[in-house]
Amino acid sequence: MKQPSAFVDRMLYILLVPAMFVSLYLIFIWSPIEKQMGASQKIFYFHVSTAWVAFLAFFVVGYYCVLMLKRPTEDRFIKAGISAEIGVVFTTITLLTGMIWGKSAWNTWWTWEPRLVTVLILLFIYIAYLFVRKMEGTWEKIAKLSAVFGIIGCINVPIVFMAIRWWNTKLHPVVFGEGKNQSGGGVEPDMLVTLLFCIGTITLLYLFMMRKGIEIEKMRLTVRKAKSRVIEKLAS
Amino acid sequence: MGYLFMAYTIIWALLAGYIFVLGKRQKDLKKELKVLEDWKSEQ
Amino acid sequence: MLELKEITKIIGDKIILRNFSLALAPGESVAVIGPNGAGKSTFFKLAAGLMQPTSGEILLNGEQIKKKTHLLKKRIGYLGHESFLYSALTPLENLRFYGKLYKVKNIEEKGMELLKAVGLHYFKDIPIRSFSRGMIQRLAIARVLLTEPDFLLLDEPHTGLDQEAVSLLNLLIKERQEKGIAILLISHDFEQVIQVCERVLILNKGRVVEDKSIDHQRGLMPFKNWYEAAVSGK
Amino acid sequence: MKIILADALTIAAKDLRNELKSKQTSGMMIIFSSLVILIFSFAFDPTNNTVKAIIPGLIWVITIFSGLLGLNRSFISEQENDSLTGLKVAPIDPSSIFLGKVVANLVLVTIVQMLSIPILFLLFDYKFHGDLIWFLLIVLTATIGFIVIGTFLAALAANAKNSEMLLPVLLLPLLSPLMIGAVQATKIVLEQEGITDAISWLQLMAAYDLLFFAACFFLFEYLMEGS
User: Fold this and answer.
1) Which residues does chain A have within 8 Å of residue C12's beta carbon, measured at their own beta carbons?
2) What CA–CA distance (Å, rounded) separates C134 from A195?
3) Domains, chain C, ordered by start
4) Which regions span the lipid bilayer (chain A) (predicted)?
């Protein structure tokens, strides 16, 4: 039982560290400098990767929420919670890098670009979800309530995206081209390679953090249980 | 260039922040375990 | 017939009920007693369908109580710690509301009848906000009886009632029991237990430690002594 | 289905009767929305012509903030005497509790809107030129969506001790697409631009309403289950 999971952890670690260095090398040295924007364009690699992971983490939360409604287990509850926490970290990174990108590319800290706004609302939903989990009450009750909220939040995200895109095109029709991801007219193949590699690396990072977070959370649960048992024993 | 530097600083800072939170949890765990062990030895 | 088969209920890390089994035949009246935290109220909530057991099953007339069996719930009258009444509404409006939800026929007539039976018919048009604890408890009892359940689950119905009301309640329960309605009673008031019930269960730490019929001749003191002995586990 | 509807109406009627007697919630909501309008007229000078542009937004700000007051009450009020448990043990489908609460809240918020929107137009000296039918349709569609998701989350938040604070935090992010649609559609109708644009927003809102109504309707029983 314990051996394979330790093996997976080690493999993740062995893969993650070199991958991180390679992706940094790819970003800063190997990939070409974009002509219009200069070096600042390199923000985009990690920005897109973290945005991808932010959505992935939310999808994972939604997945475990659905499972939890079927049958609540502590394992699923913990996984959903850690995924949401990591999601908060990555949405924050996405937002901040997005803002810096906006400043360097369009000289404004904030644009109502649909993807960016969706990420902002995603962040608020994540935080609200974590608030629900912080409620007082028995574990089963919170599991159920947070699962229900997670599902509702999940349904909301695509609608937010659609609504904002629609709103945007109606308000000021296509100012920034197709948005930043496509960089106007197609990405150079070298850039695409770097981007894909970065996405892979950050996904690995997400997996690694998930496993660590889950492990710690499970330990906390075990300790808490042991503690309450000891207290009960001492009291009686 | 300054923006690039700023962006990557923020990325690493936030990632480090989360790892710090995890580390703090682990530290708290250690404390709890110590309390438990103390109780055990007292019994 | 209300049957609970090997019910186990775990809330959080705590095992509230362990392998609890009970069969309740029509016309039977059973008291459930035990110290605080023994799992009495949890057992009632399970039987009323407010909670699902962690394992085991609850059968009502041979059908299992699950989420989707709302109609079975109609057979059960549950009187909890709280009255479940709306304090801005009058007694009659409260009864009318619950009567509609339970699909009771001739609500008005039955409602008035019950209000008379519990002695509240003079106040039928006053919002119950101004009622005393005892009056609300009486109305709560009327609410449970209105729906004509086959099984009455009474969770400490005697609290807050004065002597007169207690004997009134006991009379009402006895009446229902003679009509073939099964009664389950949680109480700390052993005097009422002896008066109302024929069989008694003692719950302690989620287990049934004693199950026997009450000898009405022996009186209160022996009963108390027996209870003490059963709970302390000798 | 018919039974669910009948039970829902019974519950809604009970809530509205309660409200009719005390008039607490509706009174508070009306006073509160008037106060918000008052504060807004201090914040944005109503005599200034450009302020007219924010009227569509104000309509929805007022609706949401006063609606939040009513939503908060709708399940908290069931905690007195634990009457929510009474509803849970009753032989009814849990969805009918949801439906009943939605109907009651909808009636309440609509009444408040019927008073507060004219007050807003009056105090900001706004002359209504748009198409009234479309305007009402848009307001109703968006309000339904707001109440559906709001009632659901109010039931969820009622489990917490600080539910009044929790509800807005949960509700507002989920409302964002609806509000974008509502404000845009209202603006189009009030400024008498092409009605086709408003219709596409209306479709978006209707889709939102249906989707969340279905989701909440089925998920509500999980909120009502005890642990």
Assistant:
1) 138-140
2) 73
3) 24-49+67-232 (3.40.50.300)
4) 12-31, 43-69, 81-102, 114-132, 144-167, 191-210
